[in-house]
Specification:
single chain; 239 residues; mainly beta; Immunoglobulin-like; 2 domains; six-stranded antiparallel beta sheet; five-stranded mixed beta sheet; 1 helix
């Protein structure tokens, strides 16, 4: 494996899994509570410096406009074997919806410096995106880590699909979903108060659905399940 490929793999992982040259970002997602800021820690495991270009982007079709969250500094050099911290700041989060989370992408691009000083060498920008959630004060009374256990499932009679409704104010990232023991290969992040559709249920008979979700720290939460029978679900979701 050449050095450039090694850099790419480590940076794309976004987590520190082994000591290989590159820029390591600690974390896969970041949550800002109202009137707060969040630190983003990066480490350069190479002996050469990198130029970092950092920016926040809104999600197309989301409930946000403008740039109520900023990343500072937007440009920064990280020296060889150096650790630094960037900061996510709410600049005008009061303009965001206060009854639900808002979702953004944090993009961090790392441009390595040439080791031989040749200005004609092409430098590859290694880019990764991380999820950023703004969580207003009004919804902090609820436990975000339990929101996935309250998803509502509905199957129409004789249908091969089922609907999943997120009745919570939190974004829920579904992972490891199985329908009658068969893994569903289309996991989705469900927006607050949004309905999504999955396929895999038989036309007749019970449909057992098992799923999990990812918490604020990127960990997989315990699995839950529900049994759908005809039009209505049978019982509440359970472990």
């Amino acid at each position: 494996m050449n050095k450039v490929m090694g850099l790419l793999i480590v940076f794309m992982l976004g987590i520190h899994v082994h000591a290989q040259a590159g820029v390591v970002v600690y974390g896969t997602r970041f949550v800002l509570n109202e009137s707060s800021s969040v630190k983003v820690t990066l480490q350069n495991t190479d002996s050469l410096p990198f130029l970092l270009k950092n920016d926040i982007g809104t999600v197309k079709g989301s409930n946000t406009d403008g740039q109520p969250i900023v990343i500072t500094p937007p440009l920064r050099t990280i020296g060889g074997s150096q650790s630094i911290q960037l900061r996510l700041i709410c600049s005008s989060c009061e303009e965001l919806p206060q009854d639900r989370e808002s979702f953004f992408w944090l993009s961090i691009s790392a441009i390595p410096k040439s080791s031989d000083g040749n200005k004609n060498n092409v430098q590859i920008a290694l880019r990764q995106r991380f999820k950023v959630f703004y969580r207003p004060k009004s919804i902090l009374i609820e436990d975000a880590s339990k929101a996935y256990t309250r998803l509502k499932f509905l199957k129409q009679p004789s249908a091969l699909y089922f609907d999943v409704y997120n009745s919570s104010p939190f974004y829920i990232t579904i992972i490891n979903m199985y329908v009658n023991g068969v893994k569903v290969n289309a996991p989705k992040m469900i927006s607050p108060f949004e309905k999504v559709t999955y396929e895999g249920c038989p036309k007749e008979g019970a449909c057992t659905i098992t799923w999990s979700a990812i918490d604020d720290f990127g960990a997989i939460l315990p699995a839950w399940s529900v049994v759908l029978d005809s039009f209505l679900k049978s019982g509440a979701p359970k472990k």
